[in-house]
């Protein structure tokens, strides 16, 4: 497909998403209006428009624009890594990672867009790359992920169902392939992952919406079920807060109608399957071979990190926004577990040193003129 065709498709998806909102992993789909303007008259008109909405939704006045097509690149500088073996027969490791980068491409298209029901389909591809300062590391896990990278290909469906002008609920299900797979290994069943969330909420005013529910997924590295609370509130024309606790909390500052600042934290979890080229042998404490286990050929890699971040989103053109983000990453875990034997023991306990990070993002959003034709104020 030619680049011009790709751009037209992305614009179309973003335009339709203007009414239905987009979604990301751990994000609640947004509906317009986006960035609240500073002028009291326009803000009052937006509030009046919100009061006339017949059906409730999770979004509030002042939230940033919906995203139809998103391209993001994140990079971290050199930082230290240490690995401690948890079973006999595996070595320890200490060294430096000279590059840790993530590229993600995501697209969202509303499959159904009605006031009483909105269905958004999302597709995404993400790749995380590592480069170690000294290669080969002679550490099977790290040599493996440097050569092949860690990838995730996912599809998800989010459903927003307003009950009336106060109550709403949303359901999201996501399926993905996550690991060090190549194009020839996409059919392997052990790469598959599943996550879901369900939240019931209340729209108290155009500026306040909240809800409670649960999330089932890998936010904390391993598959788990945990409670979730949505809290979206705009206090005035400039300040607001957006939260999906405990995974994310963000304070928002609307500088004007086309520039928004954010500050807060996010908890990100990743879960990958890694197939080793050279099997690793687990041994008994005395150093002898363990007859009850087979050599390790598959590891489950659980990665959990907390990011303290500052973010700026700015309108470049009527349909194109950019996002710049910087902050500090604290790595909580980068651990490998046995997926070959049934006991699922932790094999390697790794720690990354804390490090700063930066990212750039471009995303397509509905143009102002099309929103005005549709009767949506920005």
From TrEMBL:
Residues 150-274 form the DUF6268 domain. InterPro entries: DUF6268. Residues 1-19 form the signal peptide. It comes from the Bacteria. Keywords: Signal. Pfam families: DUF6268. This is DUF6268 domain-containing protein. It comes from Hymenobacter frigidus.
